[in-house]
Amino acid sequence: MSEQQDELLFDLTLSDEQQLMRDTVMRFANAEMRDKSRPADEAGEAPEGFYERALELGFNMVQIPEDLGGMGADRSPVSNMLIAEDLAGGDMSLAIGAMSSLSFVNTVLDQGTDAQKKQWLPRFAEEELHQATIALMEPNARFDATALKTTAKAADGGYVIDGVKTMVPLGASAEVMLVAAEVAGEGPAAFFVEAGAEGLSTSKEDHMGLRPLELCTVKLEGVKVGADARLGESFDLRRLLDLSKIGLAALTIGTCKSILDYVTEYCNDRVAFGEPISHRQSVAFMIANIAIELEGIRMLTYRAAGRAEQGLDFHQQAYHAYLQAAEKGMQIGTDGVQLLGGHGFIREHMVELWYRNLRAIGILQGCVAI
Amino acid sequence: MINLELPPRLEQARQGSRAMAEALFRPISRKYDLQEHAYPEELRALGGVRRPKTAEEIREAEALRELAKAKAKQDEGKIVNGNNTQGVVSVAEMCWGDVGLMLSVPGVGLGNAAISAVATPEQKERFGHCYASMAITEPSTGSDSANISTTARLEGDEWVINGEKIFITAGERCDTVVVWATLDKSAGKAAIKSFIVPKDAPGLEFVGLENKLGLRASDTATIRFDNCRVPKDNILGSPEIKQGSFGGVMQTFDNTRPTVAAMAIGVARASLDLTRELLEKEGVQLDYDKDVWHSSAIQAELYRMEAEWDAARLLTIKAAWMSDNKQANSMEASMCKAKAGRVGNYITLRCVELCNAMGYSKQDLLEKWARDSKILDIFEGTQQIQLLIVARRLLNKSSAELK
Description:
By secondary structure, chain A is an alpha+beta fold. Chain A has eleven helices and nine strands. Chain A has helices at about 15-35, 35-45, 50-55, 75-90, 90-100, 100-110, 115-120, 235-270, 280-310, 315-340, 350-360, and strands spanning about 130-135, 150-155, 160-170, 175-185, 185-195, 200-205, 215-225, 270, 275. By secondary structure, chain B is α+β, with helices and mostly antiparallel strands. In chain B, about 50% of the residues lie in helices and about 15% in strands. Chain B has 13 helices and eight strands. In chain B, a hairpin with a 2-residue loop joins strand 2 and strand 3.
């Protein structure tokens, strides 16, 4: 037993700081997100002042070095994963929006040069709101993140970027975005592109879900950037995708937990054939399976994040977590509606909104880098 | 701290169990699948588990246990990876070798688990060295174990047991049976007690062995009790009929269900390993770079099965870890059993299909694992019983409400 103390044990306990942070984020999700989820979805935009209030949680600045105005805490994929989970417990769209700048910050922390950190990070440690985003996905069926169609060609000591990006969170509000593009002969790279750059245009998209998120099409037509706008020494696209897979799985956990809580209460209250419908195995087993699969996704996601935090390879683990999140998460989403019957189809209840949002998990890539 | 990797000590134990499974179980796996009911002589080499026999040895064992208790007290509040966590890790590896043979290791019966959990020191002295199986199921009572009709009545200084028990794992090879019987059927589940019955007790009749779909290396017996007599002291726990005592009996499942889940994980891992090996020869590899929609159908299925497998494995370790750390884990034990039971069966069946004739043929073991895995979604509580337990817990329902 004594040698156990020196070992890193299998452990599902949060640290005191993590627990404290979780309590704060959950309180925020309850107060600022849960009840505003429906009206925000109907309006197709985030509640007035929401991102300013989310900024006060301070998670953007925590990992930014002290000399750049941040708190200088270690990179913690586990903490960021928990933030994604708990914010999504309030609302998935707003969670992705609130974490958009954090994803940008994390990617710059992980992959940026010192000069790029100095240039791009200090503003995210300020009290004023600054928005940033990552533009990765492209608008074609069978989109493959490992075969980007957007190109960056070397020219005049810099690059010229051409292509179309889609589902870019906060695409119109972001003052800077990281654009992933293929450099011929070199492979994928990412570039800092500022709002207002010549040849850059954004337009808001309309999707079946994630409606308050301001998902945008971003067109790049001969956008010129300097050589120093190319992220890092080389771009580790895989790391960005893998961290996002964990982030997306965490969003699934938060959303599916809301579904589990909702259907548990509903099916205990709803009476049919003279008793609560939860007394029927066909109903009760569906709820049991929601809980089982949700816990499975959670374990896979925590494992992947734990490995990322320890600096271990987490490529496979992120893949597993995301795959189960996309597939089991959608199953939970559709079962959530099913359990309410016709009422589940009505926009009075939340389950149809979660159903629409969960459909995005299998599609989104690279936008929630934890 | 969130860490779902095994510590080096458990990783070592895992590798040790794997090596043993590979050296001892795999070479004779097919042999005892074909020779159903034959005793796997090779397992005698394992010599059974050494348990204290003499009064002195038992005192020593007790002293060691006290020492461990004191240490545990010292460690209170600290997270541990204890016997349960190590247990599921090792069981999975042994079942990667062969689940039927794992269940045939002499001296390690389900009844032993019950004895070491609830026996008095005096009973441990008398029965600690036994190889004890567990007799619960009856011809007309399976999942509703509270409804058993085998009876026990006290006559003078002896319990007199009457009834028939089926599906007793190791029922032939064991020397002792822990038998569930009711003291008074009208008193419901509170009257159900378990009794330690030596195989040579008068009135105990060994009826025969089952012929099974899989798990053929493991003997599954029927035993009849016809006015079978055992001393009064052979009852496990109190002879008093009081409410809630059955719940205590059922709590042993909190530890045994993750163990059976671990068996499913081991068998499924065996299938996945061999399937990936055979498919690699056909040029099918997993690089985890392309998403499932840019992979071949066969790759996509392998990705899915790997993910399902790891989810089941982690749920199982979690349930065992909770038990090690004194957290109530009834629901988690059922969750991992439900997930691992169905995933294990799904994977082993799919692997047969993916490997075509090589999967279906008895030349390799894939077809055997697909037969073995089925029981793991049935015994120690079927898939459906696990879902009932999870649902009742989530919905806060009694067994009268959610039937």
